[in-house]
């Protein structure tokens, strides 16, 4: 009987340790967990990564483009995404979510590397097409997040969505003018 009790206690302990080690929502302090669900957590992390990538792309545009419309668009992206990323970082801190300020997904990094080598018209076309495609994906992601269970995530998505749609309209107009 005693042996069965010890084995049961050991199995329960092993199970609790295993599940806590696989908890992808661990926060800065290991005693605290994020206060958002997995969907909100994924949204916050991928939104932040996408914002960093768009800022990096816009900085490349400032260096590689001579087109005033592209340069103006890049400046707008840097300002708006820096503001949004700052708000998102504050939201993440309040929800005990941590992430690196330098992580950019490999797919975005590959796109950045490919456009960084271009100059002039070729750059402008590649950059603006990349922005149109990225904004399509980002807008869908934000539209989905407007129905999130976490009020702070929902409010952030609703507040930011009109800015993203304006970016998309601008990128599409520029794309038509430079083809």
Structure overview:
The chain is mainly alpha-helical and 179 residues long. The protein has a single domain, classed as Up-down Bundle (Ferritin), CATH 1.20.1260. Helices cover 78% and strands 0% of the residues. It is built from six helices and no strands. It has helices spanning 2-21, 38-64, 68-94, 106-116, 120-145, 151-178. Helix 2 (38-64) runs antiparallel to helix 5, helix 3 packs antiparallel against helix 6 and helix 5 packs antiparallel against helix 6. Mean pLDDT is 82; it is low at 5-32.
Helix content: over 70%
Give the count of structural domains.
Answer: 1
Helical segment tally? 6
Strand content: under 5%
Structural class: mainly alpha
**Which stretches are poorly predicted, pLDDT < 50 over at least 5 residues?**
5-32
| Tertiary shape | elongated
Could you name the CATH topology? Ferritin
pLDDT average, as an integer? Answer: 82
Q: Please report the first level of CATH classification, the CATH class.
A: Mainly Alpha
CATH superfamily placement: Ferritin, core subunit, four-helix bundle
What is the helix/strand order? HHHHHH
CATH architecture: Up-down Bundle
How many strands in all?
A: 0
Termini separation comes to: 80 Å
InterPro entries: DUF4142, Ferritin-like
Pfam family, one: DUF4142
Signal peptide: 1-22
Domain DUF4142: 41-174
Summarize the structure.
With 179 residues, the chain is an all-alpha fold. The protein contains 6 helices and no strands.
């Amino acid at each position: 009987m005693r042996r069965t009790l010890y084995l049961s206690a050991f199995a329960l302990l092993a199970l609790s340790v295993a599940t806590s080690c696989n908890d992808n929502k661990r926060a800065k302090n290991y005693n605290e967990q994020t206060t958002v669900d997995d969907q909100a957590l994924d949204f916050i992390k991928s939104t932040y990564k996408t914002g960093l990538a768009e800022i990096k792309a816009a900085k490349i545009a400032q260096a590689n483009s001579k087109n005033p419309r592209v340069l103006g668009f890049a400046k707008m992206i840097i300002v708006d995404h820096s503001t949004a990323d700052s708000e998102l970082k504050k939201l993440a801190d309040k929800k005990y979510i941590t992430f690196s300020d330098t992580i950019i997904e490999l797919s975005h990094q590959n796109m950045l590397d490919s456009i960084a080598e271009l100059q002039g018209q070729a750059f402008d076309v590649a950059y603006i097409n990349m922005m149109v495609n990225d904004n399509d994906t980002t807008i869908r992601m934000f539209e989905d997040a407007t129905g999130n269970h976490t009020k702070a995530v929902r409010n952030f998505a609703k507040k930011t969505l009109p800015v993203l749609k304006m970016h998309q309209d601008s990128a599409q107009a520029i794309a038509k003018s430079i083809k």
